Amino acid sequence: MTGAIFGTRIVAAPMAGGTSTSRFVQAVHHAGGVGFLAAGYKSLEAMAAEVHEVRSSGARFGMNLFVPDRTQLNPPPPVKAALEDYRRSLEPDARRYGVSVPALRLDDDDEWQDKVDALLADPVEFVSFTFGLPEQDEIRAFKRAGSVVIATVTSKAEAVLAVERGADALAVQHGSAGGHSGAFLTPGTAAVSPGPRTTADLIAEVRAAVGVPLVAAGGIMDSAGVDSVLAAGATAAQLGTALVRSDESGARQLHKDALGSPVFTETRLTRAFTGRHARALANSFVRDHEDAPEGYPAIHHLTAPIRAAAAAAGDAERLNLWAGTGWRQAAEGPVSAIIARLLDRSERS
After folding, report:
1. Is 65 exposed, middle or buried (0-12, 13-18, 19+ CB in 10 A)?
2. H or E stretch at 349
3. Is 256 part of any domain?
4. Containing structural domain, residue 313
5. pLDDT digit of tens for each residue in the chain (349 aa)?
6. What CATH number did the domain enclosing 175 receive?
7. Within this chain, do residues 193 and 87 fall inside the same structural domain, yes or no?
8. Which of 2, 41, 270, 336 has the highest Cβ tally under 10 A?
């Protein structure tokens, strides 16, 4: 396998929750990049429908899966108690919109096995994983099916483990990235540890440890950012926040507008919305729930009615506004124009 597995320097991140739509992924392809669909939070049927739609368009694409954390699905009593305490703390937020906080749910593995089976039966070109690693036999099965296997890692230790398990390539995510951290070795602390100063520094550190192609993710918003990670040893740059405000993005308009609003002045890593560290614009909900415990996806389900009601009410203060540290540079307009600017101004064209 060569370093040119994508045939492009631009990869669009798989952004679950509605941002990475079929239309968005097709637009990335036509702009000269490679996009990833996101299976997270979707039913098996919805995932299959998106695969069919994008494949029928002739676009190159990949699919991303959330790897379930079995310890989170069967937590010990003290963890359950902490989750129940957090559930009660959400009741004032729910009353604000006239909704209820649901009962604690601990059985959601995101239809992991069914989605794995479906993608083995009907393989896609690229399959990526976040929140953990599949078992070695699962990775081998994907490779036999013809898919390039990409693991999301946040450190050199995770990178080495992923390559040992058989990953063909790595999406190397720096802490500056928006949305969920993909950390899976000590996930409760890895997201907030200092680590390498920049995404390029992390790429250089991982590049020295493994020999597979690397995709750099985290805070890449312009051509200088693309050039810096490529110079450090990445095969491609992965864009997330840089594309959220695009015309084809499926993100809520409220989210897109918040990224351009002067009201928000910083991002923070928070577990308030989902129970897993994710970088978001610091709004009232983030500040009010700084002590949110670890508990994904249980907390995701607890906050879902509040987030939906906040979105319906146009209240950005209680919505999960995922954003990387370079969010102020996120531009409006078609995907084609945003990616063209990155490529045209790159010194590594």
Report:
1. buried
2. none
3. no
4. 72-108+265-320
5. 334 789 999 999 999 999 999 999 999 999 999 999 999 999 999 999 999 999 999 999 999 999 999 888 889 999 999 999 999 999 999 999 999 999 999 999 999 999 999 999 999 999 999 999 999 999 999 999 999 999 999 999 999 999 999 999 999 999 999 999 999 997 655 455 557 799 999 999 999 999 999 999 999 999 999 999 999 999 999 999 999 999 999 999 999 999 999 999 999 999 999 999 999 999 999 999 999 999 999 999 999 999 999 999 999 999 999 999 999 999 999 999 999 999 887 766 5
6. 3.20.20.70
7. no
8. 270
In a domain, 100, yes or no: yes
Residue 307, domain member (yes or no): yes
Q: What are the start-end ranges of the H helices in the chain?
A: 22-30, 44-57, 70-73, 77-89, 91-97, 112-121, 136-145, 156-165, 187-190, 199-207, 223-231, 241-244, 253-259, 284-288, 298-313, 335-344
Q: Rounded to whole angstroms, how far apart are CA atoms 53 and 40?
A: 17
Backbone phi, psi, residue 333, to 5°: 115, 175
Q: Is 253 helix (H, G, I), strand (E, B) or coil?
A: helix
Specify whether 129 is located in the same domain as 60.
yes
Angstrom distance (rounded) from CA 275 to CA 131: 13
Domain total in the chain: 2
Query: Are 217 and 300 found together in one domain?
Result: no
Say whether 169 sits in a helix, a strand or coil. strand
Tell me whether strands 179-180 and 278-281 are parallel, antiparallel or unpaired: antiparallel
Task: Give the Å distances, CA to CA, from 30 to 18, 232, 248, 250, 335.
Answer: 20, 27, 12, 17, 9
